[in-house]
Amino acid sequence: MKTINELQDEVIEEFSDFDDWMDKYQLLIDLGSEQAPIDPKYKTEQNLIDGCQSRVWLQADFIDGKIVFQAESDALIVKGIIALLIKIVSGHTPDEILSSNLYFIERIGLKEHLSPTRSNGLLAMVKQIRMYALAFKAKQEQ
Q1: Which residues are designated catalytic?
Q2: Strands 66-73 and 56-63
Q3: Which of 99, 79, 77 is nearest to 89 (CA)?
Q4: CATH number for 13
Q5: What is the pLDDT of residue 33?
Q6: What's the number of domains the chain is made of?
Q7: pTM of the model
Q8: Residue 100 CB burial class (10 angstroms; 0-12, 13-18, ≥19)
Q9: For residue 13, what are the domain limits?
Q10: Do residues 67 and 89 lie in contact, with contact meaning Cβ atoms separated by under 8 Å?
Q11: Tens digits of residue pLDDT in 105-136
Q12: Between 104 and which of 8, 40, 50, 137 could a Cys-Cys bridge form, CB atoms 3.0 to 4.6 Å apart?
């Protein structure tokens, strides 16, 4: 299993193949399209992320000490962004997720190329992923 940083470096490499932001957006859209749809039973109010302009559902399951995420969005680029996040953090332990610095967001230039509302949405997604990690970690320690 690759570490979160190894996965981030792969994503950075993948994006560095493109100079043009239109191509990078296309890559995001493709990533979103390739992602398996979330089980309809997880498309609940409870799984909606607050602070996202478009609707984003995030489901987290704790399996064998690791958190497995599933997500979906009704907006193409946002779906790609959450697909990237999941590709990097899913299947890792709460500690690995909590101690990770998601530097890929800045390195691929995502921060500066997103509208302020999308940028806020991205922060909300990261925050929600960390909240799940904290919750599962607390459960583990009981």
Answers
A1: 52
A2: antiparallel
A3: 99
A4: 3.90.1010.10
A5: 94
A6: 1
A7: 0.93
A8: buried
A9: 4-140
A10: yes
A11: 999 988 888 888 888 889 999 999 999 999 99
A12: 8
